[in-house]
Structures are given as C-alpha cells and as structure tokens.
Amino acid sequence: MEQLPAPGVIVGPDGLARPAWASVDPMLRDYYDTEWGVPVRDEHGLYERISLEAFQSGLSWAIILRKRPGFRAAFADFDPERVAAFDENDVMRLLNDEKIVRNRLKIHATITNARATVALRESGGLVNFVWSFQPDATPAPLTQSDVPTRSDASVALSKALKKVGFVFVGPTTMFALMEAIGIIDTHLVDSHRRGSSGVWG
User: For binding Zn(2+), which residues are annotated in this chain's numbering (predicted)?
Assistant: First the structure.
C-alpha cells in the first residue's frame, strides 16, 4: 500500500511535496525550491538576510520578497561598507522610497547592523560568528505546527549579536534567519527539500 504524505505537505502538479506556504504563490514556491534553507556563508549574503528578516518582523515574508529588488536598490545592494556610511539624508531618502518598507526604526537598524558587520571583521567576521551557533541537532517536523518559532540557539545568537552592536535581532527573528540560511533544517520531513542543504544529511 502506498504511504500517503504527512498532512503537512501538499504534492504539487509537478509531483513534489512542499509545505502549504510554498504551494500556491509561484514566487514563494520558487524561493522555497531554490533558496530557503540553502546555506549562506558569505558576509554580503548574510547581512542581506539579517536586514530582510528585520524588515519582515510583523509582516509576511511574501511582502518582503516582492520588495527585495527595491530593497537592494535602496540599500546599495546590501554592501555593508556602503550602508555603514549612510547618513540622515539617506534615511530621509529611504523613508520616501515606496519600493521598500518605510519604517524608520528598521531603516536605522539596517544601517546600525551594517556598521556592526564591518566591525566584526576584526574578530573573525559575521559568517563565522553566526554559524558558530549551529546547534547539535535540527528539528524534524512532520507538519507546520511542529516547527518551533525560537530555540535555545536562536536566543543565544540574539543575545550575542546584541552584545556586538546589532539591533532588531530578537530570538524569533534569528530563528527565522537560521532556517533561511541552512543553520537548521525545518523543511518538513516529507518535503522534497528535506536534507537538501547538505548540512544535516
């Protein structure tokens, strides 16, 4: 008898099983299939993800993903050195940019975090810093309700980043970051992407 997929995944017309959130919107499906959970081990990419996760706080990821081209244009393609040099004139420019989420606190956080990213280069860099919080085990969720929203590792990462000058990096936001960049694997067990990062086998 054929084993049915767990009730957390939806098998699409292409025969591939995905969670519900990645099964309808083509943009989210493509993001899930090609990017979400793929290890990010470069400073530029990691700074961009931290920035976008901060902007996502309180909003849907779909909103942020649709605006990502606008964010990249507005924030110098998330080059930490260039963003670190932004001043109040840049803040005013960004507050008037309809292609991004115009939130003063989050805009300031992105600039603050660029400066913290540059400063971390003196002690091993952002990538080594963040990846040092990879836990010994990863969740193995059958359904979306099995996926936690924070962990001991995300709490520890949040505290450590705050100590070195980062803001808007709460434990829930950092858990989402850890999922997105492959530090943990929260793909549902029956998803076609489970284990695809190469980090967890």
Answer: 187
Residues annotated within the binding site for Zn(2+) are 187
Q: Look up the pTM and report it.
A: 0.93
29 falls within a domain: no
Whether residue 199 lies inside any domain: the answer is no
CATH number at residue 48: 1.10.340.30
Per-residue pLDDT of the chain (201 residues; tens, 9 = 90+): 444 544 689 899 999 999 999 999 999 999 999 999 999 999 999 999 999 999 999 999 999 999 999 999 999 999 999 999 999 999 999 999 999 999 999 999 999 999 999 999 999 999 999 999 999 999 999 999 999 999 999 999 999 999 999 999 999 999 999 999 999 999 999 999 999 988 986
Cross-strand pairs, 11? 17
Does residue 56 lie within any of the structural domains? Answer: yes
Catalytic: 36? Answer: no
Q: How many domains does the chain have?
A: 1
Q: Which of 36, 47, 48, 53 is catalytic?
A: 53
Does residue 154 sit within a domain?
yes
Q: Is 61 a catalytic residue?
A: yes
- 99 in Cβ contact with 74 (< 8 Å): yes
